[in-house]
Amino acid sequence: MRFLVTGAGGQLGSDLLRVLAGTGHEVAGLTRAELDVTDPAAVEKVVADLRPDLVLNAAAYTAVDAAEADEDAALRLNGEGPANLAKVCALHGGGVVHVSTDYVFDGTATRPYEPGDPTAPRSAYGRTKLAGERAVRELLPERSWVVRTAWVYGESGGNFVRTMARLEGEKDTLDVVDDQRGSPTWSRDLAAGVVALAEARPRPGIYHCTNSGDTTWYGLARAIFAELGADPERVRPTTTDRFPRPAPRPAYSVLSSAGWVAAGLPALRPWDQALHAAFSEVGDALRP
Ligand SMILES: NC(=O)c1ccc[n+]([C@@H]2O[C@H](COP(=O)([O-])OP(=O)(O)OC[C@H]3O[C@@H](n4cnc5c(N)ncnc54)[C@H](OP(=O)(O)O)[C@@H]3O)[C@@H](O)[C@H]2O)c1
């Protein structure tokens, strides 16, 4: 198959390229500098030239708090970007795998969210990501797959794991919120999941893909300290109201993998095993 990976310089995008490198597929990975997905003419030209079987869209506006102050900019990238890709693929015959987020839900559930559960984003970021999901599904209903994920960390960029690894060296103790629950997901495992879906091309629609199991940010921070060889007791539980942020965070973000597994796709390993593997395989990039 021929793949086009957009946002190829990001956490997921760069891991998609790493995973695809071992598959024998033809792959073009384009960073933001090489393809701005908000530019319809540029998207048209690249897709017409490359004629990918599938576009894997890892380009996104992921600055959740900044989006509250500039929802238009977030919408251009998270809404119009995937719409541009879907429109051009509708014309040229390819499909789109578009990556989305747990933030499309309001976080009030008490059991894992299924793909068909009602969406109710509470943040600008969540609203713009939902707009992108809808655009792709409406413009390319027969050849589009939305993959929602959550709590992603990888080798590049700012993420919770790298932040905790830095703070471990700077502070004696650390207060971390213990009232938000989700599934930490290594971008390498997510990339492998996205490639498995792209190869299998199950029924078009919405799928959930995270490492399995769940914890709180506090639980994750303790596990990171343990991976660093530091004492997890230095991490202390606190509550969200002690850390006001511009964008509200969902209290409960766990995504059900039932539909993913029912489609014959491999469940991702438990989050703590993935974290251990990430520190074993790319630990130098996670540590400061
Ligand atoms: N990170 C998470 O915790 C999380 C959780 C749930 C869902 N997701 C979703 O997972 C996907 C991948 O996220 P990620 O963590 O890999 O994000 P990321 O590291 O921020 O990567 C996003 C990439 O998009 C690029 N980009 C920005 N504007 C662009 C444009 N106009 N055209 C093309 N590329 C552009 C960015 O380039 P620059 O760096 O140069 O700006 C960056 O390389 C996204 O759809 C995100 O919404 C992420």
- Gap between N and C termini, in Å? 38 Å
> Looking across the biggest beta sheet, what order are the strands in?
2-1-3-4-5-10
The backbone outline, from C-alpha atoms, is globular
Task: Give the count of helical stretches.
Answer: 10
Alpha-beta content class: alpha/beta
CATH architecture: 3-Layer(aba) Sandwich
Strand content: 15-25%
In CATH terms, the superfamily is NAD(P)-binding Rossmann-like Domain
CATH fold description: Rossmann fold
Q: Give the radius of gyration.
A: 18 Å
Top CATH class? Alpha Beta
Task: List the uncertain runs.
Answer: none
The pLDDT mean sits at 97
Total domain units: 1
What is the helical fraction, as a range of percent? 40-55%
The total count of strands amounts to 14
Order of helices and strands: EHEHEHHEHEEHEEEHEEEHEHEH
Bound molecules: NADP nicotinamide-adenine-dinucleotide phosphate
Largest sheet: 6 strands, parallel
Task: Describe what you observe in this structure.
The model has no long low-confidence stretch (mean pLDDT 97). Helix 1 links the parallel strand 1 and strand 2. A six-stranded parallel beta sheet has the order 2-1-3-4-5-10, with helices on both faces. Strands 6-9 form a two-stranded parallel sheet. Strands 7-13 form a two-stranded parallel ribbon. It is globular and about 55 Å long. Helix 2 packs parallel to helix 4 (71-92) and helix 8 crosses helix 10. The chain is built from ten helices and 14 strands. The chain is of the alpha/beta class. It has helices at 11-21, 40-50, 64-69, 71-92, 124-139, 160-170, 187-200, 217-228, 258-262, 271-286; strands spanning 2-6, 26-30, 54-57, 95-101, 144-149, 152-153, 174-177, 181-182, 185-186, 205-208, 211-212, 215-216, 235-238, 268-270. It has a single domain (2-159, 184-213, 253-270), classed as NAD(P)-binding Rossmann-like Domain (Rossmann fold, 3-Layer(aba) Sandwich), CATH 3.40.50. NADP nicotinamide-adenine-dinucleotide phosphate is lined by residues 6-7, 9-13, 32, 35-38, 58-60, 62, 77, 99, 101-102, 129, 149-152, 157.
